[in-house]
Amino acid sequence: MKSIFKILLVVGFACSLWANPVIYPHSVVNAASFQAPGLPSGSIAQGSVFTIFGAALGPTPAAQQSSFPLQTTFSSVSIQVTQGTQSVSAIPLYVGAGQINALMPSNTPLGWVSVWVTFSNSKSNPSPVYIVHDSPGIFTFTGTGLGPAAVQNAVTATNLPANSNQAAAKPGQLEILYLTGLGPITGADTGAPPVGNLPTPVEIWVGDVPAAVTYSGRSPCCSGLDQINFTVPTNAPQGCWVPVWVRTSHATISNFSSMAIGANGGPCSDATNPYGATVANGGAIGLLALTRLTVHEDLGVNAPLDVTNDFVNYTATKQLGGPFAFAPWLSTPPRGTCTVYQGTGDYLSSGQVPSAGQAMLDGGSAVTVAGPTGQQSATLGAGNSAALGSYLPLYGFPNQLVLAPGTYKVTTNGGDDVGAINASITVPAPFTWTNRDQTIMVDRTQPLVLNWTGTTASQTVAILGIDSDLPTNSSALFLCYAAAGAGTFTVPPEILGAIPASRAHALWSNSAIYLMTSTPSSVSAHGLTNGEAAAVYIGGKTVAFR
Amino acid sequence: MKKTIKIAITFLMAANAFGQGGYTDPDPLHLKCMIDWINQTRDGIYHVGMEKQCIGGTWHQLTYIYTFGNRGQIPLMDVDTGMMCSCPASQSAAPLAAPLFAAATLSGDSLGLKPRQQEDNCDSPIPYDNSASDAVDFEELLNLLAGSTGPDPLLGESARPSIAPMGAHLGTAAKRPKAAASGSGGFSLTLPYRVLPAAPLLLGSPPAVQAQCLASANPTYYETAHIDAVVRKFNACTGAVIATVNVNSLPLQVRVTPDGSQAIVTHFSSSISFIDTAGNTVSGVLQTPLTFTPSGLAISPDGSYALVTNLEPAGAGGAAIGVVDIASRTLTSMIPLDIDYPQSVFINPDATLAWVVYPFNGAVQVIDLLTGVVSRQLDFDEPISVAFNATGTVAYVAEGAGVDVIDTSTYAIATKVETGSVPADLVVTPDGGYVVVNNSAGMSVSLIDTQTLVATTLGVSGIPRGNVVVPVQ
Fold first, then answer.
1. Which CATH superfamily includes the segment(s) A21-132?
2. To bridge B59 with a disulfide, which of A166, B72, B81, B453 should be the other Cys (CB 3.0-4.6 Å)?
């Protein structure tokens, strides 16, 4: 009898898998930024467009509402939002089997609500969502929430080209940025949206420089779609991927997008980024590095501990290019500025920064490193890297480090896409992070000053801070580039505020800050448009973001 | 607050197998090994329990009447089935004094949690094989951790994301170093203790190390003694009893709040106790209605509330999850359940879902905690406990003779890992590298590599009765 019962259960479960809509965990997100719920702008705003990911949520092929008034049931799909006994109906805008884009009504109760999808009279599981008054998400051309923003250069009232690496904005030019999450409206959401400034306080930064806002409210075209009209600051940094972000109510920071800015408009350029042209125009980029990574671990441990690793990295990628091309880590912000990469997963484990528009190339996996301490052959593995040595001053582990200062000959064997590389890499003496041990509790509302010595003007210094919020399976990191020759950098609170706070429980967050130097030189190989070999030194430490 | 390097250590407790058994000990020779709650029925204030025990080498079917309060059981009938059985002779041995092995990781501040998920259960028709259970096979485990035999459990770790200045991809591709105890009887560990910004990339054979339990951190754990109506607090480094706290009758499960200030205990006798862990005294008792039989217990990550299962048949006033406000020590709401006898409950890392196990009905229900609605029901073979990885993307369910690995985005079973007999408590090491399983009827402990999803099962002496995380130095 029990077996029969179990069979029936299994059959019923299998049937239910086919019949019932399913909302995946943590999958009700801002439709522009896709910010994970654990991130600072991961809540859903009243009156905003949001996305539901799941299975069997709607029809195949997908359908989209295209006329006012909008219906709360569309293509047999309806969305209920409940809080206790209170219930409102969200407005489905686009419905498909795997994804729904919908409008969260302006009168949705604040706080925790449950979102349910009903498709053809079958009801989904509930998904918990936190509703706030405002939470901005900037639309991006990459569709990932990172990279080029949906922004128009307002050249004239009728000439409004999309900002791109081929159509940079000029300093002082009026721009139109599209986003969602500026807050509720007073009327019905099913009708054409009202035009006018919303009362939500809005700030916008362009390359860490505040910009003047001339309009912030609904775009007249579309329900839930907001726009901000702003002027590019005359002192904004120039480049192809100048960070752009928004803060509402002096509290909630959006995803970090980018825009191109140039003195004369037209195609953008960034003299400090050797890969910019290849990312924009397409081509192959090869990066070979000898890296020393040393991390001071003084949070969550019994006693401070320094872990040091030496390894070799080699990555070859094909950049597809295009006017809205963007590659995290290659589409770097201008010197002296910061950007933030938010995403799903644990960036310090298996999570990845959202990326599009590039593909890996086969440049071979065998690497030989010959230097002052001898010769080593290595096979690149996961992460396109291979360990050369390490040192953990604990339990009598031996010191196996190899990357002492000096000149190293590094060769790769080449692969199907990229030929062999023969590079000479000079490893300099490492820099000193002078206020490292004082950098423990990082107050995200205050500027974070980082000081170092021992770098030269030829070295690039980058600062990376990261927090992985494990319970919500989300991460964010900030990436800043210091001006050449600088010995200090201040991370502004507008950047730190985009990083989730570390949890009180040491095991529920992974939080760290790294200072990184790179001493690059060009290399060439068959199949590469851009090749570079570098000695990289990374000094990091554990921190807690408060 | 001083942080400590901590390491997950599974204590293989050869404790009194009947400490939580729910009846008095009729077998001074300690040959019994079965307590079966499945057949219990409710008759007014009495429970009639039928238990199968291995006594004198054969299975006996025992029938008891037992009551709320602390009056124990009244034996009604003892039927010798004549079926041969064999039980571990060492079940009544004292807890082992030292941890037997360590799977490396870093724990948080909450130490000493020794959950008890189920009653002892050894009704397998397969007799125990005691021939190899006199001592723990250290060598096999140490070899595993050292990677000297079989597949290296440390290989295949997911690559870290590329983090690079100047666009250089600098994925660390960290491979955890390995360290093994020299000789037997000590610790073995892997490093680092969790996923931290840098993991050492040791090449070649690691040196032998001897890590020691960090006594200065005063790690502790708790255990309920069902019949004795006490909760014992142990030193996790030595296994010594630190305190014995008298509590209401028939304690079942115990959990410690995230701040370590309270231990909360469920009682089959319709109450929930709150123990002040500093003073080792009962600081409060929540008396539940007579129709509420507290069993399973889970505390929210923020320590604000506890979920308690009502181990009763479904129906009005029956099977449910009670929500207990810890600050006020009140039962604030009930989530009714539609399956009989919800035994234990587990909260996922972001506290959005509760997984309720029904070992007697072969089911697990996933409850949306905001609405109390069953989001999903899954079919298992006598599921006992659930554990999650740190991000909640993977759930591990102990059932039957193995552990199911569940993708929580789809609830699909990624794989089933074979372990020893009746896997019970599960602990995911804080670095996510391993799931430690005590096989409650198998006299063994299994270590599941979360990358390869391969388990190594080691025989132990006595019945392993829980896992606890302790620090080492």
1. Immunoglobulins (2.60.40.10)
2. B81
Q: Is the pLDDT of residue B49 over 80?
A: no
Confidence of residue B56 (pLDDT cuts 50, 70, 90): low
Tokens of A331: 């589409």
Question: How far apart are the C-alpha atoms of B249 and B277, rounded to whole Å?
Answer: 19
A167-200 pLDDT per residue, tens:
999 999 999 999 999 999 998 999 988 889 999 9
Contact between chains at B206 and A397 (C-beta distance less than 8 A): yes
- Between the alpha carbon of residue A220 and those of residues A192, A225, A320, the distances in Å are 7, 8, 34
Nearest residue of chain B to residue A348 (CA atoms): B160
How many Å lie between the alpha carbon of B409 and the closest alpha carbon of chain A? Answer: 5
Burial class (CB in 10 A: 0-12, 13-18, 19+), B316: exposed
User: Residue for token digits 């000053």?
Assistant: A449
Provide the 10 A C-beta neighbour count for residue B338: 13
Among B6, B167, B204, select the one facing A287 at the smallest CB separation: B167
What is d(CA A225, CA B103) in angstroms, rounded to the nearest whole number?
Answer: 51
Q: Does A210 touch chain B (CB under 8 A)?
A: no
Query: What's the Rg (C-alpha) of chain B?
Result: 22
| Domain spans of chain A, in order of start | 21-132, 141-261, 276-545
- Interface touch A313/B171, C-beta < 8 Å: yes
Specify the CATH number of the domain A141-261: 2.60.40
Q: Would you tell me which residues 43-102 of chain A have a C-beta closer than 8 angstroms to some C-beta of chain B?
A: 55, 82
Number of H helices, E strands in chain B: 1, 32
Rounded distance between C-alpha atoms, residue A17 and residue A182, angstroms: 37
First to last CA, chain B: 17
